[in-house]
Amino acid sequence: MSDLAEARSVSVEEYLGGEAAAPVRHEYIAGEVFAMAGASEEHATIAGNVFALLRAHVRGSPCRVYIADMKLRVEPASAFFYPDVFVTCDARDAAEPLFKRHARVVIEVLSESTEGYDRGAKFRDYRRLDSLEEYVLIDSHRRACEIFRRHPDGWLLDPVAEDGRLVLHSIGFDCPLDALYEDVVFARSEAADPA
Fold first, then answer.
1. CA triplet 18, 24, 126: central angle to 5 degrees?
2. pLDDT per position as a tens digit, 105-161
């Protein structure tokens, strides 16, 4: 895939073929390929917690939950992303093993290097999915969670209180914010460190 990442423009077929053999994951946007960076311990723990909670919730239903290594295709944007966690309840996604197309919920865990992108251009592309009903941003540096919900007039922000609950109407899910942050130890900032 490293050769593809240096190419000027890559077709979807080249991307998918290269990605299958690549040791590093890459996202694809309109012919450009971008290597993905590794995640912090806090990021990985939060994503794991969210996946476990959602997986238990949808067990026995037509919905499926995916974490980090499953691609989500956003065809109107000519893009493939690796959301931290996403849920699809569409039977058509079961027929496609390499990627899914019909996410109902997408969850991104924010890091300093990706927060602007996750809130901006990436969210703009995700909004082009007709199936998407809720987009969740979870901070990995402090207890903070935001839910963007699709409404007939557009997307509305529904912030979660620090002692509140993550409620996903589209899949009937509800859990305390504490559950998302279980086992997360926030790194102390150097400014707060008296040493």
1. 80
2. 999 999 988 899 999 999 999 999 999 999 999 999 999 999 999 999 999 999 999
Separation CA 83–CA 67 (nearest Å)? 7
State mean pLDDT over 49-57.
98
* Average pLDDT, integer, range 30-50: 92
Residue 175 CB contacts under 8 Å (≥ 6 apart), including other chains:
53, 165, 166
Report which secondary-structure segment, H or E, holds 20.
helix 12-21
Q: Give all domains of the chain, ordered by start, each with its CATH number.
A: 1-36 (no CATH), 39-71+81-192 (3.90.1570.10)
Q: Beta strand pairing status for 79-81 and 103-110?
A: unpaired
**pLDDT grade, residue 39 (50/70/90)?**
confident
Q: Which is nearest to 181 in space by CA: 54, 86, 68, 48?
A: 48
Closest by Cα among 187, 156, 173 to 58: 173
